[in-house]
């Protein structure tokens, strides 16, 4: 409980440590990234990315290979509006490229595009419990390319 606290979710930038230093934000929570030495960080959790699709999606009709994975349209999640990230780098190393048809600022909004479509959503596994509780008829699968584990941290400036 924090009765005098106001939470504001803001767009991520390339220089979040500067926003912390300049008192534009009080707390950063997100994937670990490089911050200036004076910024304090604390690891919250580690997670991995998995795929999410509607139940009955044709991706489940056979073995999920990298080639079948990229054969369907994808959702990219980026608070910066980017259509590429670590998954695209991993696919590129295999000479593959996915077709991003939708860019969403959050996983939470992206999951609503899955029912009734053939879109695939790479999603942080720790976010799935929320998606599963909504009863949208979604199914998880392993992404068929090696991806690094993601560390989620909180960071603040000790001002």
From TrEMBL:
Keywords: DNA-binding, Transcription, Transcription regulation
UniProt keyword DNA-binding present: yes
A Pfam family that the UniProt record links to this protein: LysR_substrate
GO terms of molecular function: DNA binding
GO terms, biological process: regulation of DNA-templated transcription
Xref: InterPro entries: LysR-type_TF, LysR_subst-bd
Domain LysR substrate-binding: from-to ranges: 3-141
UniProt entry tagged with the keyword Transmembrane helix: no
Name of the protein: LysR family transcriptional regulator
Organism of this sequence: Christiangramia aestuarii
């Amino acid at each position: 409980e924090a009765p005098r606290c106001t939470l504001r979710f803001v767009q991520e930038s390339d220089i979040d440590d500067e926003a912390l230093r300049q008192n534009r934000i009080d707390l950063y929570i997100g994937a670990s990234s490089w911050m200036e030495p004076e910024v304090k960080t604390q690891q919250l959790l580690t997670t991995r990315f998995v795929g999410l699709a509607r139940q009955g999606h044709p991706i489940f009709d056979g073995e999920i290979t990298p080639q079948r994975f990229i054969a369907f349209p994808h959702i990219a999640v980026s608070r910066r509006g980017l259509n590429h990230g670590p998954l695209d780098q991993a696919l590129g190393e295999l000479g593959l490229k996915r077709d991003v048809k939708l860019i969403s600022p959050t996983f939470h909004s992206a999951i609503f595009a899955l029912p009734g479509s053939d879109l695939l959503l790479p999603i942080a596994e720790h976010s799935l419990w929320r998606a599963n509780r909504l009863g949208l008829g979604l199914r998880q699968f392993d992404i068929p390319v090696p991806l690094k584990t993601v560390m989620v941290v909180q960071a603040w400036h000790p001002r």
